[in-house]
Amino acid sequence: MSNFDGLIKSLDPERVKLDEPLSTHTTLKIGGPADLFYEAHNSGELIKAVRLARSFEVPVTIIGGGSNILVSDKGVRGLVVKNCGGEMEVREKNIFGFKKHRNIAIDPRWVGSKMGTMRYDFSDLDYDESEYPDVEVAIDSGVNLQVAMFHLFDQEITGLQWYSRIPGTVGGAVFNNIHGGRHVFSEIVKYVVLLTKPGDVIKIPAKSMRFEYDSSRLHQSGEIVLEVVLSLRKGDVEKARSVAGEWRKRKSSQPFYSAGCVFKNISEKDREILGYPTTATGYIVEHILNMTGYKVGGAMISPDHHNFIVNTGGAKARDYLAIRDEIVKRAKETIGLALEDEIRYLGEFEDR
Ligand SMILES: Cc1cc2nc3c(=O)[nH]c(=O)nc-3n(C[C@H](O)[C@H](O)[C@H](O)COP(=O)(O)OP(=O)(O)OC[C@H]3O[C@@H](n4cnc5c(N)ncnc54)[C@H](O)[C@@H]3O)c2cc1C
């Protein structure tokens, strides 16, 4: 019996799919097949799938909502586990606590203007919730972030409104320390429960996660997020709902058939040196590199947000990459800037 056969038999022959097209599991709708594909509906199933794959020496890759990945046209070898489901638990309501909120100062991503990429501005929606009581909430990593936000609003718990309309799972949000306006996810993370490479389950405090802008230790460690414990607020839920609604409205021009921003925004230091009005990379693509409408095959730089490459229909990963590589080349040649990827690459790519 081959390793694949052994794994399928041990995991669940009814639920393991062969040669599953990953294009159907990514927001970009791009990606070749996974040799084996399994949907984990809770942390227990996620642990089991990963441990079994490792015991059969089958490479294993985790995806959540597939909203920040470019999957190669050749697909992904081994087992792909889609982490999609789980539970949430409100563990503690500290109604007398008035803890100070940790303030992480990050630059606004966009500044107000009527021109293209510069029109995104969320600063007027921002407010401080630090005077409201803490609430500790544990959420399985496969839970969809938007579902979690609405579910918590129903329980009068706030703090996720800044991440309104960001697709994907709570695990994906931790992996990349997502940002919403001036906020980063790590502000509200208290503990993370991880499955280590040797297969142990550990619970670590947020400070050990090495959270940075669009990054965490998970980018290097190969650990898998099972659960996250968030420090949220018994806040003003009507205000939070209305802010979440307004964010959704303003972000509705961000095209969904994409993988989000292709590149990280530039640093404040680079912005100052270059004399640009914003750190938004979309501004550079639109106003400096003049690449509006640039297209290869079915992929195109979105005219609605120039740091997004969209699938206009039938795009391949190689089309997306050709555009990405052209932007990198022109940015280097024109302004001497090395742009950094925000998206993650999964599968067989020749030079990545
Ligand atoms: C329209 C649109 C708007 C977006 N807006 C924003 C935004 O405003 N701010 C922002 O920061 N991002 C944004 N994104 C990017 C994306 O939604 C986030 O990065 C999201 O958190 C990714 O989660 P996911 O579950 O889809 O992860 P996936 O795309 O499935 O995976 C991304 C990476 O995380 C890893 N991963 C996923 N789950 C786990 C886990 N449980 N344990 C370990 N590793 C894991 C995967 O292996 C992969 O390397 C946007 C994307 C789109 C399409």
Automatic annotation (TrEMBL):
GO BP term (any one)? regulation of cell shape
Required co-factor?
Answer: FAD
Q: Which reaction does it catalyse?
A: UDP-N-acetyl-alpha-D-muramate + NADP(+) = UDP-N-acetyl-3-O-(1-carboxyvinyl)-alpha-D-glucosamine + NADPH + H(+)
Named in its record, the pathway it takes part in is: Cell wall biogenesis; peptidoglycan biosynthesis
As for subcellular location, the record says: Cytoplasm
Show the GO MF annotations: FAD binding; UDP-N-acetylmuramate dehydrogenase activity
Q: Which InterPro entries does UniProt cross-reference here?
A: FAD-bd_PCMH, FAD-bd_PCMH-like_sf, FAD-bd_PCMH_sub1, FAD-bd_PCMH_sub2, MurB, MurB_C, MurB_C_sf
Keyword S-adenosyl-L-methionine set for record: no
Q: Which UniProt keywords apply?
A: Cell cycle, Cell division, Cell shape, Cell wall biogenesis/degradation, Cytoplasm, FAD, Flavoprotein, NADP, Oxidoreductase, Peptidoglycan synthesis
Q: Which GO terms describe its cellular component?
A: cytosol
Q: What class of enzyme is it?
A: oxidoreductase
Q: Where is the active site?
A: 261, 342
Ranges of residues in domain FAD-binding PCMH-type: 30-235
Tell me its EC number(s), please.
1.3.1.98
Task of the protein: Cell wall formation.
Q: Which family does it belong to?
A: Belongs to the MurB family.
Protein name as annotated: UDP-N-acetylenolpyruvoylglucosamine reductase
- Origin organism is Candidatus Collierbacteria bacterium GW2011_GWA2_46_26
Provide the organism lineage as a comma list: Bacteria, Candidatus Collieribacteriota
